[in-house]
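Bug report (template v2)

What were you trying to do?
Predict the complex of my protein with adenine.

What happened?
Run completed; filing so the output is reviewed.

Input:
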Amino acid sequence: MSTIKDRIALAQRLPKAELHLHIEGSLEPELMFRLAQRNKIDIPFRSVEEIRAAYDFSNLQDFLDIYYQGMSILRTEEDFFDLTMAYLNRVRADNVRHVEIFFDPQGHTERGVPFDTAISGILTAFTLAKAQFGVTTKLIMCFLRHLSEDDAFKTLAQAEPWLDRIEGVGLDSSEVDHPPSKFERVFAMARERGLKSLAHAGEEGPPDYVREALDLLHIDRLDHGNRALEDEALIARLRKEGMTLTVCPLSNLKLCVVEDMAAHPLKHMLDLGLKATVNSDDPAYFGGYVMDNFRAVIEALDLSEDDIRALARNSIAGSFLADGEKRAHLSAIERA
Ligand code: ADE
Ligand code: ZN
């Protein structure tokens, strides 16, 4: 068996896709300060160190409270552009060639920032990053599940002029007590509009929420899915359907979904034949980007070269790229 260092180098070298990334969760403290100054907004922190020290969470809600507070400094189209460019520039170093990015429009419209301001800034960065770095991107609009169904319908209506630039809809925010069934009708309308369907499920919520996401939202991809492992029939179904799981190891550690990295289920998921992938979720809050996540699981779970290649392949195969684009990336993985 090769050394851990060799296996980390392999993970670095392989072309990869990131499929679970909230753009608002890539807001680094340094950029938060710069934007707060530019927009003349007071923030309750005096230094980058003070901000980082506040990132100590005991569950999802703890994090979400700070995350919504952090994103409140995003006001102008330029802010969303700078945020998105910073992330796309950063992941070049990890050899991430394709990204499917979530954004939370309601986190902005709720505080008076127009839908069009946020999406315009993000999409302009997509275009420039493709031209400058060759990275490809897709955009997924999430509904905040702690808000109402009616609110989600309003958000879908605001997205109407942009539908040719939006790949799918997702479901995020506080999971427990906000099951997928609450959004069955708005997801049905989104699918009628040709959008793909995704949902965070089984992060903190029970296996039944994963089942609802499959049966009622007809998801094309499952975000997290950790707690599906508590249910044998569900495991068999996810395997049979070839469902891609976007797993986020450092996020799971920071939000106490797992006790320590050695107890992370990623290796077990692969051994069960599930199509798991490695993602950063909210890298500015959870201690790292895609390669930081790979490094953490390779070390803690002693992943093999085959595991690492499978993770890279799953990220491409589970993306919404066209078949020809997938084939090109997959053959580059075989050659690497
Ligand atoms: N929004 C941003 N990150 C999230 C996560 N890990 N779970 C649910 N909602 C989120
Ligand atoms: Zn997430």
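What did the reviewer find?
The mean pLDDT is 98. The pocket of adenine (ligand 1) is lined by residues 22, 25, 60, 67, 172-173, 200, 203, 251, 281-282 (CB under 6 Å).
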